[in-house]
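Reopening this ticket.

The earlier resolution said the output was attached, but the attachment link was broken on my side. Pasting everything inline this time so it's all in one place.
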Amino acid sequence: MRLLSYNIHKGIGGVDRRYVLDRIWRVIEDEDPDLICLQEVTSNTRRTRYHDQPDILANRFQPRGHCFQLNVRYDKGGYGNLILSRWPFRRQQHVCLRMHARKPRGAQVVVVETPQGPLHLTNWHLGLAERERHWQVARLLDHPEFRADAKLPSLIVGDFNDWRNTLAAGAFHQHTFEQVTSPPKRFRSFPAFMPMLSVDKAFHRGGIAIRDVRLVRSRPAFWASDHLPLAIDFQLMSGA
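Inline output:
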């Protein structure tokens, strides 16, 4: 199975600052993922021509499971996280991760009915402040909506904004999660045109065999967003 985690930057290129959503789906199609976890997906905003990106992407990829989480709201529209899945969801929940008056953040938590068994999958985009990020990780891992299926094989992906890589030793370690994207120097994903920071990450726990993990460094990915996508090939142990 293949998962692609990608901060699409609303479809706006990091180099030319042009909005071209076609470039995003071409990058995704080239990787042919089974699970697509996106961040900074817009709906009905002026900068992205009032496009309903969740609907456009769902129509393009025809997933059996999909859900959109609108976190940041404008006067018109806003943006958030999107999951598209080749397989249906058994369960889906949205967890609010907003810390006090900071920018709204959230996590999508779903159970995917894969051919190898159920997968507990989280897609998120964490805050810019280190203290905020540690609070967000602890809040999710202790949240009832997350713990309800926590015995299943779990994978947490997205834009962690954790450029100093301090989260691995905190709540993730306490909850026995292992970092997939390690060492960080191999996974510098931002900015796409000259990657210096490792911010797009993944952690897993319980019954998941990671076969391969890499950043997509294709020429289309260089132009499409200000982040490089993260591709993970894995199997559930029951299906290994």
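Reporter confirms the inline version is readable. Residues 2-239 form a domain with the Deoxyribonuclease I; Chain A fold (CATH 3.60.10.10). The CA atoms of residues 120 and 154 lie 5 Å apart.
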